[in-house]
Each structure stands twice: as C-alpha cells, then as structure tokens.
Design goal:
Order of helices and strands: HEEEEEEEHHEEEEEHEEEEEEEEEEE
Structural class: alpha+beta
Distance between the termini: 59 Å
CATH topology of the largest domain: Elongation Factor Tu (Ef-tu), domain 3
Strand order of the largest sheet: 3-12-15-14-13-16
Largest sheet: 6 strands, antiparallel, barrel
CATH architecture of the largest domain: Beta Barrel
Oligomer: single chain
Radius of gyration: 39 Å
Shape: elongated
Number of helices: 4
Number of strands: 23
Amino acid sequence: MKTKVFWSIVLTATMVLTAGCGKEKSTTTNERLVLLQTVENGEGGSVMTYPGRTRASEEANVAFRVAGTLLRVTVKEGDHVRIGQVIAQMDDRDYRVQLTAAEAEFTQVKAEAERVMALFADSVGTANNYDKARYGLQQITQKLQHCRDQVADCVLRAPFDGYVQSVLREAHETVGAGMPVISLIGDGLTEVVINIPASETLRRDEFASFSARFDVLPDEQFPLQLLSIARQANVNQLYEVRLGLQGRHPQITPGMSTMVRLNYKNEGANPICIPLSAIHRATGVSSVFVFADGKVRLKTVILGQVHNNGSVEVLDGLEAGQQIVVSGVNTLTDGETVRPAPRPSKTNVGGLL
C-alpha cells in the first residue's frame, strides 16, 4: 500500500512540473523579425536606374569580297586574333588564271602604246592615235590592278584586334561575295546599352554621370561615359543610349546584364531616398517605422518624387543614420518590440554552408 502511495505522489509531481514547464514556454514572447535599412544622405539631384546589357564596341561579320570555294579557315571560336591576321583563305586558282592573262595583255598593250607615243613625239603619229594609245594603257593598267586585287581578296584578314565569336562557314563550302564567314568582336572598350523614354531624353542637358553595377561583381561600381543617344525611338518608343565602360575590365564580357544608374545635376537640396516598401499609409498620412532600442516607432515623413527604381524621395522627417523597416510595415504597430533580421551573406548565397 505504501508503494502505491509513493508512486502516486511521484506521478502527480511529474505532471505538475510538466504543466509548469509547458506554461512557461507558451508565455515566452516571440519578437518579430524585421528587415532594416540605414538611411543615407542624398547624393545631390535625382537618380534614375535602368536595366542594360554590355556589348563589344566593335562587331563585324567578316566576308570575302569575291566568290569562290572556301579553302581553309585558320581560326576557331574563342581564338584571339590580331589586326591583319589571316583567318580564312579561298581557292584562288581561277583568279590567278585571270591575273596571268591580264599581265600578258598589259605587256602587249604597253609595248604598242609606247611605240605610238614615241611616233607622236617625233611628229609622225596623229593625235587621235596618241589618245587611243594613252587611254588604252590606262585601261589595261586598271584591269591588271583589279585582277591583282581579286587574288589578294582570296585571303581574309582580321579587321581589328578581337575574338572569334563564331565560324559561320566551313572549308570546301562555296561562298558568295559578301557572304559572312566569321563573326568577330573587338577586345577594345566595352559598351553598355540602355533604353530611356522620351521624357528623359528631353533632360539630356541635366545628365550628370552614369555608373553600372553587375550581379557578378556586387561590391563594385563602374563609371560610364555617355557616347550617344539615338535620334529615333525603337518599336517600344524608347531611345537607345550608348555608354562606354571606362578602363579595361577583363571580367566584364559582352552580353552581361547590368543596372545603370543615371545621376542628374544637383538642382538644390539633396533629398534622402528610401524604398517605397518602407512607407506606411494606414493612418492616412505617409509614415515610416524607425527602429531604436529594440522597438519600432511610427514617424510621419514628407515625400517627394517617386523614382522608377522603386524608391521615393523623403523631403522631411528622416535623418541620415536612422534605421527604418523596409518590409512588412503594414503588419507592425507603433511601439512594438522587434528583432532585426540578419542580412544574407554575400559569400554564402542561400545559407547552404
């Protein structure tokens, strides 16, 4: 009987302790995670951002100037070539036959022309015969040069330093004059191309600077130089803008996607810009949640121009160095205790390591 009473007491105590632990766990406060951003000073003037793509400053589909059978291609895709380097050759047999015939004809006509002109110099020949001889010699000279050019054109050379992008024809194929054989891209300065609306082209005099940022190089910003703005809109009613990437950057190759930042000239005060996702409007006025001492406080702000990159200017209400919530603001309350969400690692994308 004593044994049963003992085990009953132990069981009761265990249930009480378990219930107590469960109650303590359930009353623990779960602080919400929020994504924060530090407010920074404006950079002077408004800023616009446009998607862009890189391309080589020089591109060419190289072709023979004469028709014939392709004898050999001396390069392959990805090869680096120098200006003047032989990259393909055509069978020049027929053109050499024409050159030999032209050389023989030239020798004959030249000899006859020299005799006629010599007689005219001695006042024996007529002026008509002299003119025929002189013009005939000029004609055969140009014909001979044309045949020599055709033989020379059977050798295809690189027009600039660059890389072979693709080989479009193989040996033993018959190609026509002007038919592309090899596609080349230059290894000079890289260009970045963006498209802007007409409203921005009208403000071209206010452009201050351009810069590009690439996903493969997130910590670097590359200055750009304005090269040209198209005078005619494309089918999307946008105008192409060509920008030169200053300096040589081997890690940046043609075809890369980028985001181009267009800075306008300073027209007065330097407004602070924050993401639109940080704006809270449930109270009927524009506000943001400012984080301090583990809590968020709702603060009214005065907004300015909205940019097409998803940001908005703050004319009053925020100061540089303050931290604001930039995600999920419509679910927060004034004075709520929160915890800053950790920023994702740039070297451990996805948190897999």
